[in-house]
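Two proteins, back to back. First:
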Amino acid sequence: MFYRPEDGHGLPHNPFNAIVSPRPIGWISTRGAKGDNLAPYSFFNAVAYVPPQVMFASTSAKEDREGTKDSVAQARESGVFCVNIVEYAARDTMNASSGAHPAGTDEFLLSGAAKAECDTIDCPRVADAPASLECRVTQIVALAGEANFAVFGEVTGVHMRDDCLRDGRFDVMTFGPMARLGYRDYSRVESLFSLSRPGE
């Protein structure tokens, strides 16, 4: 099968998200004039090592946020955000925070996610996440299409849960990271293997 996105795929559901998978989930926390916010984004990844940088993208809008969502609006307002890593045990809590709630809704309270303060920025974080990345916004890029924005940030602080450190390494097998697939599907990391690059 071949299709041009501009012509449509002709399938019952859009296959694009299933093709580009698995995708890590950035559970983004922000703080703004309307309060604290927490929401998951699967258009998320690390983009540079030195200095460490990450990005997340938002692809729809709410009527009360002038063409975007709460996370982008509050990152733009405050200049900071925090990325919280989602473990399998938090899947229901993460999902409960994913609704399109009115601006000013605190999804920490709504979902039951434990809240703590960041150290290098004025922002909340998920207290018991396996890891959290405190970030200062470096740029917000308007992408082609309606309400598509990519938010880039430099990591200024890193939290790692003590039980996730094994032999000096951050061990993802201790918590089973969640990954987003297509449609309503998710996965978790349950096995791993190592490869050496040529010449190593």
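And the second protein:
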Amino acid sequence: MDIPVTGFVVHSGGEDDPNHAHRLYITSWDGRPVHVHPFSGTTSYDVGHRHHYAGMTEPAPSGVQHVHGYYAVTSFDAGHSHIIRGTTGPAIPLSGGGHYHYFEGRTTVNGSTPHTHSYGGNTGNEV
């Protein structure tokens, strides 16, 4: 099955730069525009500290029921950071238009005393 996808690629860094990158921005999926959501928050307080995180969800089609993948690296606190990743819940309509998603989970294990943190919250409105 073929699904038409449109978008563009942005090249950063020079040709001779070993750290150059290419980012793909998808603008439509199967004829529908896509959107993302900002998310941010603070983890639970464990082993004497907490972490902050912020990011944007992965794109998803607009106008249909959907979820988003998300990924972020937490702030560097107490000598380490953690990764958060997962899939949001389904869209929750906002009274003024748009929608948001609930997300929750546990971070990866890290730290001199190995541990995780819980996190959760709501994304912002669609962008």
